[in-house]
Design a protein that fits this description.
alpha+beta, five-stranded antiparallel β-sheet, six-stranded antiparallel β-sheet, 5 domains
Length: 789
């Protein structure tokens, strides 16, 4: 890295002191009077002339400044996020497009602290949130602290967004149940945002969060969703609003496509049929919006667009062509009455005379969520039928949304309200814009979606929390607006809006839109029941394996990765149409063998598979991601790793906590358990329903998460998904904050073990003793090294 010229020039004391600030390195610039804050471009604006203010440190790129050589013994500071320069040539501190230089004078008594001067010194009299420094008077002392710049919106950034969201809004309801919004259509849409996260990462921890919330919703509402539930702690309006039910149908149908679980598909299909039967307006071929509210002859895009998407998903899951036909009928009629093909505008609603089909009224309002769902329907119908009109419509719809609903920076500027229905609209558009980018391999729209995600990320607060107003920095006290219009965004009613940014962050890959296709011609076949594909993975991690196939009837296919366990997955009937089935796998770095098989019937006609890298395997598993049973509950603590910890483990076999870990390779692993409790306690770990191995957890001296200790265990895991269950059948267990797994590396040589010459125990190469081999591999048995297959 190039050193600043200032470290070599000794012309003046002020210049010589700048040697500690290096060109090319990035810094946060904090007022010495309050170093918990630092300079940030106001609201992360990318516009020239935007104010630069002090804000609580949130460790985002909009608060990071890269030093550049400005010549004449001066330094320039370029914002990592906006690419613009710190400037105070006018009265107040702003960002500008062109490089401007600063003179830095070091403070002799405080290391890393400087006064900053252009024409006048930079001054901040009161370092309160949002205050803009000014030029003039006695210069304020500033701390320049080196940071690692976040130059791209990456996997770590979006994981931070997810963790912050879960910490703020996920409510533990005991016995493995959770909720976000405590009902309403916002709950259904939030569940789909969690599915966005799962589809983007393949991380089974995220799927557990979805399933616990879905199961709680069904406990409250039941399997039929056309009803009213109005409790203090849960609301559902399926008795009236057909679109409310349809959003949940989409989530269920999509969950089936991502997991293969038939219960999700049955829920989606049964409730779709119910809504179709009660809401279908035969004279116009569209669905009624509501049964009790508004005009019963009224229809709108917010019921027809979602119904088209839902019908396509159900058709994909069942292989029943009639659902695609329903989607096509709704789409064509929505296109006639609620769409402007020349511009791509999706209109909101229309009321017709059922006798004459005359339009009595129409609302031509264009919104993000209506643009989003009709876009999604056009993509899915184009995928199924191949009719060019659908692709042309999709092109128009997404372009119109980008032109009309965004500011000049490309960031969605509508739906900036912080509560109510509007708060989550833009997340729906981002979801289907991401589908468009992936389906058509369009990097331009991928970058547009990520630009919106990055703005939301930069405007989070220090708790990694962001609301739906992506153009406004989230305050530390969670308040949005002021006076009578102020909204407390910490409340559960705003969870829907908080989830909108997750749809943007996870709907497209953060790296290249890159897929590796492997033709069936390159697979090794065993009759018609097995096909083995070889894939060279650059890195270990979660991958999506998309299977392209044709099948005359519904069938099953098992996916086996290397020597791991087989996972069974259902495939819908496709007829002559080329179908797709998304599977998820954890692969090791290097060569992997992916085997598709069917032990009882022949495989369907598989044309190819596409393998796509999704994310790294996260070795740190938080308690809030785990599955709890019985009396185990989650409690909040700022000192806990993810903001929550699990308590009430033990005192009976029903009170357990289970973590899922997706291992890229089979082998021995260390498990570091972060725990705390005021007394010594026993707790077992059980791997994949095997033996319960109990361990003593020494007292940490208190029930304070800040006093937590780490207990190291060692376990043997299989390749693929492993279950690690903690409990105590006969007494109480300690509180668990998190666990962390690391591979025990096999040494090059055999580790000496203590044993008698008559010992018939089995030892792994790492010296772990077993009564019998627990998996294939090399072992020491007696005086020999034995290969167990």
């Amino acid at each position: 890295m190039k050193k600043s010229f200032f470290s070599l020039i000794l012309l003046a004391a002020s210049t010589a002191a700048m040697g500690a600030i290096e060109v090319g390195k990035s810094y946060r610039i904090a007022p010495v009077a309050d170093t918990s804050k630092s300079l940030m471009v106001s609201n992360a604006s990318t516009s020239a002339g935007a104010p630069v203010v002090v804000w609580t440190e949130t460790n985002v790129p909009a608060q990071q400044w890269t030093a550049e050589d400005a010549g004449d013994g001066k330094m320039a500071f370029r914002n990592v996020y906006t690419g613009m320069y710190l400037d105070a040539t006018s009265a107040s501190l702003t960002q500008v497009a062109n490089q401007t230089g600063w003179t830095l004078t070091a403070n002799a008594e405080q290391a890393g602290c400087y006064t900053l001067k252009q024409r006048l010194s930079l001054r901040l009299t009161n370092p309160t949130e949002g205050r803009q420094p000014i030029a003039g008077g006695t210069g304020t002392l500033w701390l320049l602290e080196e940071v690692q710049p976040q130059t791209t919106f990456d996997e770590t950034a979006r994981q931070r967004m997810l963790n912050g969201y879960l910490q703020q809004y996920m409510q533990d309801r005991g016995t493995g149940y959770r909720t976000f919004c405590a009902g309403g259509w916002g709950e259904a849409e939030t569940l789909e945002s969690i599915l966005d996260c799962y589809e983007a990462t393949g991380d089974s921890r995220v799927l557990d969060v979805f399933e616990s919330c879905y199961n709680y919703l069904k406990q409250q509402v039941g399997s039929s969703w056309n009803k009213l539930v109005y409790k203090d702690d849960y609301k559902w309006y399926g008795h009236d609003f057909n679109d409310d039910v349809m959003w949940l149908i989409i989530a269920a149908a999509r969950a089936h496509l991502l997991t293969g679980k038939t219960a999700y598909l049955a829920d989606a299909k049964n409730n779709f049929n119910t809504i179709w039967n009660r809401a279908y307006l035969g004279y116009i071929g569209m669905l009624r919006w509501a049964e009790n509210s508004g005009d019963r002859n009224g229809t709108n895009s917010c019921i027809n667009g979602p119904a088209e998407v839902a019908a396509c998903y159900i058709g994909m899951g069942t292989g029943d062509e009639s659902y695609f036909e329903k989607a096509r009928e709704l789409y064509q009629n929505q296109r006639q009455y609620l769409f402007e093909p020349s511009t791509g505008k999706v209109w909101d609603s229309v009321v017709l005379d059922p006798n004459t089909l005359a339009v009595k009224s129409r609302n031509n309002w264009v919104s993000t969520y209506n643009q989003g769902t009709m876009l999604g329907a056009a993509i899915l119908l184009y995928r199924h039928y191949g009719t060019e009109q659908y692709k042309q419509d999709a092109d128009k719809i997404i372009n119109r949304a980008r032109v009309d609903l965004c500011n000049n920076e490309g960031i969605i500027h509508v739906c900036q309200s912080a509560d109510g229905d509007f708060q989550g609209f833009k997340g729906i558009l981002m979801r289907y814009a991401g589908l468009y980018a992936r389906e058509f391999n369009n990097e331009d729209y991928q970058q547009w979606v990520l630009a919106n995600a990055a703005r939301a990320y930069n405007n989070m607060n220090s708790r990694s929390f962001g609301h739906s107003a992506w153009l406004t920095k989230a305050s530390e006290d969670f308040m949005f607006g002021s006076g009578n219009d102020a909204v407390d965004y910490s409340l559960q009613g705003c969870a829907f809006g908080g989830a909108a940014s997750l749809a943007a962050a996870f709907s497209v890959p953060v790296g290249k839109l890159q897929k590796t296709a492997i033709s069936s011609d390159d697979a090794q076949r065993e009759e018609n029941r097995s096909m083995a594909f070889t894939y060279q993975a650059e890195r270990a991690g979660h991958y999506m394996v998309k299977v392209y196939y044709r099948a005359d009837g519904k069938t099953n296919v098992s996916l086996t990765v290397n020597d791991g366990s087989a996972s069974s997955n259902s495939l819908a009937s496709t007829g002559s149409t080329l179908g797709q089935r998304m599977l998820f796998a954890t692969l090791k770095a290097g060569e992997n063998t992916l085997t598709l098989s069917n032990s009882s019937n022949k495989l369907p006609a598989i044309e190819k598979i596409e393998v796509t890298y999704l994310s790294d395997v996260f070795n740190q598993l938080e308690a809030e991601h785990a599955v709890t049973t019985g009396q185990v509950t989650l409690s909040q603590s700022d000192d806990a790793s993810g903001g929550m910890y699990a308590r009430n483990i033990g005192n009976g076999s029903s009170n357990t906590i289970t973590f899922k870990y997706d291992a890229a390779e089979a082998g021995d692993y260390y498990v570091d358990v972060t725990y705390f409790y005021s007394q010594n306690r026993q707790m077992y770990v059980r791997v994949n329903n095997g033996t319960k191995a109990s361990t003593t957890y020494e007292s940490t001296g208190s029930l304070d998460a800040a006093k937590a200790k780490v207990k190291r265990l060692q376990v043997t895991l299989k390749a693929g998904t492993n279950l690690l269950t903690f409990g105590n059948d006969n007494g109480g267990a300690p509180y668990i904050d998190k666990i962390q797994l690391t591979r025990v590396d096999d040494p090059a040589a055999i580790v000496p073990v203590v044993k008698s010459s008559q010992s018939q125990a089995w030892y792994s190469l790492t010296g772990v003793k077993y009564d019998a081999p627990v998996r294939p591999g090399l072992y020491i048995h007696g005086n020999k090294k034995v290969l167990v297959k």
